[in-house]
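Notes from hallway chat w/ T.B., transcribed later so I don't forget. T.B. wanted the structure written out for a chain they're using in a teaching module, and asked if we could keep both sequence and structure tokens in one place. Agreed to drop them here.
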Amino acid sequence: MEHVSLDEISPDLTFRLRDPGDVSELASAIGRLGQLTPVDLRPLPGEGEGKRFQVVAGFRRMEALRLLQREQVLARVHPSLPDGDAWALALAGPIFSAPWSPADLDAVAERVRARLPWAAPAVEALRRRSRAKEAGPARSTLAHALAVRAYELNGDVAAAYEGWSTVPAEGRRLVIEQLRYLVRILPLLEKENR
């Protein structure tokens, strides 16, 4: 992981799967805690316009950092990432994290089929789940939401560990405080009678 100047990153949107939307809450969190999750970059094919890198995943974080007028981004730089792997990386976050609307999935489905045929069944399964969710909430919605958030938290904590020294002291204190709370609550959740 390394810090990369925003000036070295191309405005190329090849791997952006949906509009970043309102990033003000994300910018507020980054402003308070620092950037806990890196973006994924690869060398820009052809190195156009003096830019060196292309964003593969992390467009919302990039927008939040620009909103904060930051000069650098914490990034995982993948020195030799072929297109197929870059598409898989771009899709991994959305598939395993925030739910997509049927319209979001419809918009990206053709691009997935064209560039990453092996991922088309996963996108189709997401489309079915998304339509079912719109039709009516499932009983396990809370459990699913908690599992997704726990998955995201695991990734964020792993990324924070790698760049822990770059997290501001107050941010480190807040993160540790919340993780200690989770550790105290876990035995209660594991009891069979709950």
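Follow-up for T.B.: The chain has a mean pLDDT of 79. Might be a good example for the class.
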